[in-house]
TrEMBL record:
<dbReference type="Pfam" id="PF00005">
    <property type="entry name" value="ABC_tran"/>
</dbReference>
<dbReference type="InterPro" id="IPR013611">
    <property type="entry name" value="Transp-assoc_OB_typ2"/>
</dbReference>
<keyword id="KW-1003">Cell membrane</keyword>
<keyword id="KW-0813">Transport</keyword>
<dbReference type="GO" id="GO:0005524">
    <property type="term" value="F:ATP binding"/>
</dbReference>
<dbReference type="InterPro" id="IPR017871">
    <property type="entry name" value="ABC_transporter-like_CS"/>
</dbReference>
<comment type="similarity">
    <text>Belongs to the ABC transporter superfamily. Spermidine/putrescine importer (TC 3.A.1.11.1) family.</text>
</comment>
<feature type="domain" description="ABC transporter">
    <location>
        <begin position="7"/>
        <end position="241"/>
    </location>
</feature>
<keyword id="KW-0067">ATP-binding</keyword>
<dbReference type="InterPro" id="IPR003439">
    <property type="entry name" value="ABC_transporter-like_ATP-bd"/>
</dbReference>
<keyword id="KW-1278">Translocase</keyword>
<dbReference type="InterPro" id="IPR003593">
    <property type="entry name" value="AAA+_ATPase"/>
</dbReference>
<keyword id="KW-0472">Membrane</keyword>
<dbReference type="InterPro" id="IPR008995">
    <property type="entry name" value="Mo/tungstate-bd_C_term_dom"/>
</dbReference>
<dbReference type="InterPro" id="IPR027417">
    <property type="entry name" value="P-loop_NTPase"/>
</dbReference>
<dbReference type="InterPro" id="IPR050093">
    <property type="entry name" value="ABC_SmlMolc_Importer"/>
</dbReference>
<dbReference type="Pfam" id="PF08402">
    <property type="entry name" value="TOBE_2"/>
</dbReference>
Length: 363
């Protein structure tokens, strides 16, 4: 290990086509991915995740900006010279080859000697727990087993970086959960940097060391799952990652980067504020549904409303509350005995929200 970042994208722009039909797939994207990280690119369809992956792999070249692998600019390097491997959603296994032959394919292309290849194939079969199936053909394997072979084949040459483009999306939910744990284990055991692409926020939150949230060719936020969930930078991130309630508040006064804001209920709070939020202007607060407590009306609370709808989910219950001041919020309460157990549709309730659970968003 060199101690240098595994991958850096510096001011990368990628445009497809020209003239009025041009598509800007990546718009001045910069990101640094450290060695041994499980790093996820997360965003809705079309936001540019795959394009960034393809630029790192070398299947495409940037229109502007540069890609560095371990500190070296790689524009001149074709994919096979980059020490980067890719696992595709479709697995792209060779149907006429056995499991072992598939795993050894890349090693053969690299000109490794037979004894080396065989030893590495054995190691990989063990790593992905497929030793008993080494002689099966691809069509004799389940989807999950094919996925393991695709992973073993990509890991066999021990690349510095493994790129994974929605590799679990073809699996059913149960298998998908199993493979999430399996992928984490493989990353940990091999020490290879994983760059994982998904549009599934839950998958990103549970698997990643860090996540880059993307939208329309830009990276909006980079951080750990906790940072992104607890402190989303803007409305898009707050909305895309988990469920969020948005409430407008008015800036009453400010001193430096702190100020007083007023909730629609008239209650004032001291908050850190964006330097651009003027006195008299509006700010949006993001509040997670599980950070709101339902209390008796009139009790010490920040907002008040009426229960509009109750949905039971086994471990928790979702209450949809119409606020007295207009708008509505969702409150998620764990199913323990308490005040919420006696609530029914139409009941008046108070909403208690800790000040730190109200995140002021950039607009
Ligand atoms: P998905 O989750 O659907 O795969 P994505 O986030 O990976 O989406 P990209 O595949 O990177 O998104 O695409 C980003 C944008 O660039 C899209 O608008 C897409 O239509 C466009 N695009 C991607 N590849 C090409 C291409 N070869 N030619 C023209 N446009 C392209």
């Amino acid at each position: 290990m060199t101690g240098l970042p595994a991958v850096e994208a510096k001011n990368v722009t990628k445009t497809f086509g020209a003239g009025p039909d041009a598509v800007v797939a990546l718009d001045n994207v910069s990101v640094t991915i450290q060695q041994n990280e499980f790093f996820t690119l997360l965003g809705p369809s079309g936001c540019g995740k795959t394009t960034l992956l393809r630029l790192i792999a070398g299947f495409e070249l940037p229109t502007a900006g540069s890609i560095l692998l371990e500190g070296q600019e790689v524009a001149h390097l074709p994919p096979f010279k980059r020490m980067v491997n890719t696992v595709f959603q479709s697995y792209a296994l060779f149907p006429h080859l056995t499991v072992a032959e598939n795993i050894g394919f890349g090693l053969k292309m690299l000109g490794r000697r037979r004894a080396d290849r065989d030893a590495q194939i054995e190691k990989m079969l063990k790593l992905v727990k497929m030793e008993p199936m080494r002689n099966r053909k691809v069509h004799q394997l389940s989807g999950g087993q094919q996925q393991r072979v695709a992973l073993a084949r990509a890991l066999a040459p021990h690349p510095k970086v493994l790129l994974l483009d929605e590799p679990l999306s073809a699996l059913d939910l149960k298998l998908r959960k199993e493979m999430q744990i399996e992928l984490k284990r493989l990353q940990h055991e091999t020490g290879i940097t994983f760059i994982f692409v998904t549009h599934d926020q839950e998958e990103a939150l549970t698997m990643s060391d860090r996540i880059a949230v993307m939208s329309h060719g830009k990276i909006l936020q980079i951080g750990t799952a906790n940072e992104i969930y607890e402190h989303p930078v803007d409305r898009f991130v707050a909305d895309f990652i988990g469920e969020t309630n948005f409430i407008e508040a008015e800036v009453m006064q400010r001193i430096g980067n702190r100020g007083q804001i007023r909730l629609p209920s008239g209650i004032a709070l001291a908050r850190e504020l964006d330097p651009i939020a003027p006195v008299g202007g509006k700010v949006t607060l993001a509040i997670r549904p599980e950070r709101i407590d339902l209390v008796k009306p009139g009790a010490d609370c920040q907002l008040a409303g009426k229960v509009e709808n109750i949905v039971y989910f086994g471990t928790d219950t979702h209450f949809h509350i119409d606020l007295d001041t207009g708008g509505d919020v969702t409150v998620r309460v764990q199913n323990r005995r308490g005040f919420q157990e006696v609530l029914k549709q139409g009941d008046a309730v108070g909403l208690r929200i800790a000040p730190e659970a109200m995140q002021v968003l950039k607009d």
